[in-house]
Each structure stands twice: as structure tokens, then as C-alpha cells.
Amino acid sequence: MVKLANKVNTNSETYQANYKAMVAMxxxxxxxxxxxxxxxxxxxxxxxxxxxxxxxxxxxxxxxDADSPFLELCPLAGWGTSFTVGASLIFGLGVIENTICVIxxxxxxxxxxxxxxxxxxxxxxxxxxxxxxxxxxxxxxxxGGADLPNQAEIFIPxxxxxxxxxxxxxxxxxxxxxxFGNSTAGGAYIPGMSDYIVMVKERAKVFLGxxxxxxxxxxxxxDDEELGGAEMHARVSGLCxxxxxxxxxxxxxxxxxxxxxxxxxxxxxxAISDKSARGYGAIPVxxxxxxxxxSYQDPIFSEEDLLGxxxxxxxxxxxxxxxxxRILDGSDFDEFKPLYGTSLVTGWGSIYGYPIGVxxxxxxxxxxxxxxxxxxxxxxxxxxxxxxIFLQNTTGYMVGxxxxxxxxxxxxxxxxxxxxxxxxxxxxxxxxxxxxxGNYGMCGKAFNPRFLFxxxxxxxxxxxxxxxxxxxxxxxxxxxxxxxxxFDEEADREMKALVEAQIESESTxxxxxxRLYDDGIIDPRDTRTVLGMCLEVVYxxxxxxxxxxGVYRM
Length: 554
Prior knowledge:
Layout: E1 2-3, H1 13-37, H2 42-50, H3 56-63, E2 70-73, E3 89-96, E4 99-106, H4 117-133, E5 137-143, H5 151-170, E6 175-184, H6 189-192, E7 196-200, E8 205-207, H7 211-218, H8 224-228, H9 230-237, E9 242-244, H10 247-259, H11 306-309, H12 320-324, E10 332-336, E11 344-351, E12 354-361, E13 365-366, H13 368-383, E14 388-394, E15 396-397, H14 401-405, H15 408-421, E16 426-435, H16 436-441, E17 451-454, E18 459-461, H17 465-483, H18 489-506, H19 509-514, H20 527-539
Parallel strand pairs: 4-5, 5-6, 6-7, 6-8, 7-9, 12-14, 13-15, 14-16, 16-17, 16-18
Antiparallel strand pairs: 1-10, 2-3, 3-4, 10-11, 11-12
Helix pairs in contact: 4-5, 13-15, 17-18
């Protein structure tokens, strides 16, 4: 391994401007996360507490092991839409009885925990993570089912939630439901299709139709308890496996079930009391992985430097080696093909003792040489069963007559082929921009990375806003010429301004994360921590790379 050098001048005007801009973006992110964590707002939070109930986040905190981290995922789902930010569902990765689990919790302070279209997307993502990483899924249930005014967007895709639960069980991945309150209509099938069900006495209510619906449908008179109470389901219907005396007892029983799954693995997640990750609030920094016997050294250079390294202007590239020097063990990096395809940095390192391969964009553009280099490197990583980390900061593949004639399409296709058919886990972080097919080649959302995060400065779209508006302008001008009519320059200027504004707003990190095109925005200083937690997850299931690929267009 070679120690990475530090070329960052923290006193330079560029560094200081970048630092100031990043801090402002992090402050905005913190404000948005605060809004999400407030759920339905003070009125509904207090109403929930007045009923003697724990909040969803309090339930999660009690469920996971003491002083262990909770990596919340997709916390800003629904941002920029008419739906409450967070989508009435909290989910992430937590450790229960020394076992990493996917944990989801309905937030009953948001419309009684009812599901909207973004709730569905979040729930589907939770199931995908559980399946890909073979993690038990624990659901903390209190939901009124579908948000009926939006049923047209929920009903049909919502069925996947039930399919996912049954398929997880069939694959030997445990599913557990802890029911704290109402679980109505479609919400009743969440516990109904779980392997284990715990219900809180006199609080949990599970029924396909509540008393009013039953009255309308059948004319039958009934109350909540005899129709779907915990006592009835524990003694009569048999739906309930364990009846808890109260919420704390329900959580205790949930932990007991996980303990008996015989899945606990030695973990490296350890809390450090005086330092915690900033982007998600509840994530402590990972401590020594003594349980695995893994030894490693911290990076030589400070994570704080990352705030000034990342360019405030997406058009200005920066050297990803400076990022690697602050996230890799001992700042050690064995660069592969350093003199070839220099706009892409590839090589080997480790994070918290876990071996990784890295692909990181340098000067943004991917040429044929970069594509060929990436393809070879991805194949090598698969040969030695090593996960890959993609650090995206690309404007895409190079265009132009020279490059088209030189075979940029077939070379880009090789890289996309390699990414598509690679079987080692991929972890992706957008640390700048991710445009066009470069997003695909660098393992964007469509290529199913195990986890995908973004820095607050990240942007992503089919191309930059100015380029896109310019393309539309050229097409309009050519159409006018072909039709023999005069081109309206003023209308063209107005069109370009509107298009640029629209694309700029739709390419921001907040817009992208609000639509669940990533797993969350993270503070750059938390990059090593978050990657370490994700690597713990992917390494715990075993890694086996691809030994054969599809046809390469040579």
C-alpha cells in the first residue's frame, strides 16, 4: 500500500469558499431532518403521548442494543411533494441482540401512520435491503392502512409489501411484527404475513375492517376488542404469538425473539460517547472491531477537511484521492493503472479493516480509456470477491465526432456490462455530480447498489441544466429553419431560463433523496462511518463475485 499525500491547502480562498458553502448546505440538511423527525407536528405528537404511548423513534431506541447505532435510511422521503416529509415511516439498520436487522416503524403522529405513495417506496426499499443482505426484518406496527384519498397510487403497488414478507420468510429471512396500536385493512396483513407477531394488550387492534365498516358491510355490531384486540387474537384466532402487557414488554419480547433466531454475528458497530455522526443524529462513530479480530489504522488526515475539499461549484472537479485519504484505513491506497485513463481513479484499500475496491471520478468526463480501465478493474474485484465503492463525480461519457469514431459507445457499454453483471456488493456515494450515462457506468440507482448515499452538494440529472436548455434551443432553432419561419429569440431566452431553473431544482440532492433515488444525504464527515456500517452488513453475508460475463463488444 502507498500512503496518500495531502495536497489540500486549508488556508486557500478556494478551500474556504468550499467550506463555507458546504456548511450552509449541511445546516439546510439538518433543518430538513429536524422537520422530518417532528413527524406530524407538535399537536399530534402531544396527543400521542397523552395516550400513554411511546413515539416511533423512542420505540426504535429501546428496541436496539444499548449504545448501538441506528442508521436511518431515506429520512427525507417525500421532500418537495405534498406529503409529509418522512412519509409516515421510519426505517433503517439497527443491532438487536447483536444481530443487524432492518427495522421499520410506522409514525402514528402522521395521519395515524397511514401509508401514502412514498411510504410504499420506503417499505419496498426496506424489503429489498433485508433480502439482498439476508437481514431479519422487524416491523413496529401502528397504521391505519392506506391513506384513502391517495388510494389510486397506493392500492396496486402496495400489494408488493405482502409479497415481500412472504418471500422473505420463504428464503429463510425472519420477519417479526410488534403491534402497538391499530393495524387496519391492508395494515393487518403486515403482522398477518410475518413469522412472529407480538401484540400489546388492550392497545393493539388488528382487523381487516373496523366496527364501522363491518356494520356497513354486514350489519353486525361489534367493538374493537372482540373484532381485533390482542386478547382475542391470542386466545381465539391464534394470530397473536405473544401478548405483551405494555409497550416496554412488547419491545422486550421482540428482542427475545431476535435472540432466539440463532443469527447473531460478531459485530464491529460500537458507540463512542463523545462523538456522533451528524447527518443522522443517532449514528455513533464506529469503534474498534475487536470482536472480529480486525486491526486497522484511522486515516492520517482529518475528516473535517472534506468540507472544504468538495467543490461548491459542480462544474469544478476535484481530486478524489483527497477524499480517499480521509476515509481509507491509514490513508493507504494501492492505485491501479494510475497512468492510464487518468480521469478515473481505481485501486484497493480498506475501511475499518474491510478490503474494498474503489472507482472514483477525477476530472468528470469518462473517455474510452477510463471505460476500459473500469471494466478490467471490476472484473478483478469479482475474481477476488472484494466489494466496490463508487465515488460519483461525473458529467458522463465524452461526446463528439472524434470520440464516436473512436468507439466511445462500445467502450462505455463494456463498463456498463461490467457493472451490471458484477456480483460483489456495490456501495455508491455521489460526492459531486452524476450526469447522463456516467450515472449508469458509476453504478447509479438503476444498477442496484446495495446502498447509495449523496453529499449535500450532489447533483444528478440527464445532463447539466445549461446543456439541456441549450440542446432544446438548438432543436427549436433547427425546426424553425426547416419550416422556413423566423426564430423568436426572446421566446428562446425565456424558454432557456425556465428550463434551466426547472432542471436545476430537479437535480439537487434534496429533490433526488425526496424521491428515494438514494438512501439518504450524509454529512461528508460521516462518509467513513456510514461506509463502515454498510460494509459490516455486506461482509456478514459472505461475498462471491462473478466468474463469467456477457458478450463484450471488443
